[in-house]
Amino acid sequence: MSISTEGDSVAVIDSNHSGGTTEALLERGRALSLPLLRAAVDRLAPPMDTVAAYHFGWIDALGNPADGDGGKAVRPALALISAEAAGAPPEAGVPGAVAVELVHNFSLLHDDLMDGDEQRRHRDTVWKVHGPAQAILVGDALFALANEVLLELGTAEAGRATRRLTTATRKLIDGQAQDISFEGRERVTVRECLEMEGNKTGALLACACSIGAVLGGADDATADALETYGYHLGLAFQAVDDLLGIWGEPAVTGKQTWSDLRQRKKSLPVCAALAAGGPASDRLAEVLAADAKATGTENPEADDAFSEEEFATRAALIEESGGREWTTQEARRQHATALAALTGVAMPQAVRNQLTELADFVVVRRR
Amino acid sequence: MSISTEGDSVAVIDSNHSGGTTEALLERGRALSLPLLRAAVDRLAPPMDTVAAYHFGWIDALGNPADGDGGKAVRPALALISAEAAGAPPEAGVPGAVAVELVHNFSLLHDDLMDGDEQRRHRDTVWKVHGPAQAILVGDALFALANEVLLELGTAEAGRATRRLTTATRKLIDGQAQDISFEGRERVTVRECLEMEGNKTGALLACACSIGAVLGGADDATADALETYGYHLGLAFQAVDDLLGIWGEPAVTGKQTWSDLRQRKKSLPVCAALAAGGPASDRLAEVLAADAKATGTENPEADDAFSEEEFATRAALIEESGGREWTTQEARRQHATALAALTGVAMPQAVRNQLTELADFVVVRRR
Question: Where are the transmembrane segments (chains A, B) (predicted)?
């Protein structure tokens, strides 16, 4: 395994696997979970059904059918493989895949509104198109639907799965609270940042990796090991996201340029750069401190007033301080820890290969 | 039972019971559920724990301990009686009482933001004090906590209770969606309004009345009958709320004068007045139609531009059309239907008396 971080690439490892297999796993996750996901969304009272359909990319802002980008769907793919890890057919994981995807999208709807993000998946965000009230309401509805989809199974396994999902959702919300509070601070330690990202991204990805197994009848020890895999995979995923949030190509990511810098996100590259010390790190600290004083903590949108060059300078300071390189290495470390968590878990070799495929995908993606 | 609607009173029946007993039931509900409620809220990551404590009236806006109005706490009281209806001790209903109260307060946090309401329980609302992001986030957290409090019991009964709570929460959200959509319409039928109120208020009150019984081991038939009682009690409750939303005393209700008219709520008195026909009804329709044209549907806050006299005129037109009287009668009808639902249900006479007490309280309250 070798590190490749040349140019604007965020690839962290050279995967031994073909992208084609990963694409097939993601496509299977989407295809198997879509009917139940659409049926769940169709239960929503108007106009929430329409707003949700827009969010998922099934219709455009005018209500016409669309084939929009519904996201990478890493979580549904993992939920189905998780069922197979417990020796169950992938279909056993479908309600878990749908529930996790519903919670993920609930958080996107609310986070985009809280963060003032105007673009997601190459389209205007829901609050921008349908207004803040619909973003709040449809988010709430997706959260409730997630529990409904699981609990209507009426089994003891569904109860255990819902409990794990609830724990993950609470952490997700804790993580968003930490993320917001970090924006108003001058300094955030790398440890605090990792804790926040573990809550915000790790917990739900961990749940995606265990929920299928729980529904498939796995014991708690197996489910816990799969959660550990998913948690570290989530941290690797987020480290790559943080790299993309600064150095990603807007045309590929579907977000604004310098997205995370505009939001004053204290993401991993920023925290690592500030912790590194040295001239570039000190200069970055000065810039961010002046910034916080000038605009206050109450109005992050004021960042939009900065020029593109200002953001480019900040990105360069982060890179010069070693924040980009450290984050790339961290993604690699988390990737390795994730795979190590599977060592003691009995599962078919084909399933283990799939979990390795997806772990590799998470750290070599460009969006 | 006689109707008394003189002056500005919204009393719908003359109760045979003393208010003292009701106060004792409400106080018991508050006292028994508060430790678990506070413990649940204490689990939230900062600053969400502080924001939630402010919302519940435990601290003031500066963070100092307070003894604020935490609401009437009708739902916790009902959840404990519900456990007793199943022959269990009231304590068996406590996790249900807390879960329902958490969902209720999740909806208040989000609804106040969506509706732009600045006052609740004689204090500024959370979004007004702590900002929209915290109102969204803490609402989400309370919703997740509600499921957590039930599911961590780890019993089959807890799974059934969570399923009922999830169904009720989905209806609650449907009801808020309908409520918002009605504000932008010129006309809403009485039937549509009752359906909306059944979702928004009836469903969760129904759940409060069954959740304790489910946790106490009741069968589905008993739980369903208690839900029917609670559903109609909720509709009676909401009819009285609609009367208070127009004719309530701000000093008593803790809301603005003409609160519902400011929000353009198509509440029961308005829908009934519009459906009644006659000169006052026609005049009201004209006023509301002109109103909708003048301000557009996108900016309900523009209503604040109207004078107190304008709202007084509207209230008078609603009353002259018979909207106030019809709503008073409707509260009485729903109250009777609620009590009738208990007829076939076996329960101790003392418990039956308590359910009657609380039903009476709901329709004679002034806040």
Answer: none
| CB-CB neighbors (< 8 A) of A162 in chain B | 147, 151, 159, 162
Task: Dig out the tokens for B189 from the structure.
Answer: 């039928």
Mean pLDDT of chain B: 90
Query: Quick check: B7 pLDDT over 70?
Result: no
Q: CB-based contact (8 Å) between A44 and chain B?
A: yes
DSSP 8-state class, residue A45: P
Question: Is B365 inside any structural domain?
Answer: no
- Please name the residues between 185 and 244 in chain B that touch chain A, using a CB distance below 8 Å: none
CA distance B173 to chain A (A): 6
Gap between the terminal Cα atoms of chain A: 22
Q: What is the pLDDT of residue A367?
A: 65
Interchain CB contact of A113 with B (< 8 Å): yes
**Number of domains present in the structure of chain B:** 1
Residue B284, pLDDT above cutoff 70: yes
What is the predicted pLDDT for the residue at A329?
96
pLDDT surpassing 80 at residue B261: yes
- A150 lies in some domain: yes
A189 is a domain residue: yes
Q: Is residue B254 part of a domain?
A: yes
Asked if residue A171 lies in contact with residue A224, where contact means CB atoms within 8 angstroms, the answer is no
**What ipTM does this complex have?**
0.91
Percent of chain A, pLDDT > 90?
75
Cβ contact (<8 Å) for B137 and A162? no
Who wins on pLDDT, A121 or B132? B132
- Closest residue, chain B, to A130 (C-alpha): B298
Q: Which of A103, A104, A129, A137 has the most B C-beta neighbours within 10 Å, making it the best mutation to test the interface with B? A: A137
* pLDDT beyond 90 at B9: no
| Predicted local confidence at residue A47, as pLDDT | 95
Residue type at position A203 = A
Question: Chain A residues with CB inside 8 Å of B215's CB?
Answer: none
Residues 6 or more apart whose CB falls under 8 angstroms from that of A124 comprise A61, A118
Residue A324 belongs to what domain range? Answer: 19-364
Q: Which of B45, B167, B174 is nearest residue A174 as measured by Cβ atoms? A: B45
- Put simply, the answer to whether A110 touches B136 (Cβ < 8 Å) is yes
Strands (E) across B212-322 are located at none
CATH number of the domain bearing residue B218: 1.10.600.10
pLDDT for A304 equals 53
Strands (E) across A53-175 are located at: 119-120, 123-124
B10-29 pLDDT per residue, tens: 555 555 555 568 999 999 99
Radius of gyration of chain A (CA): 20
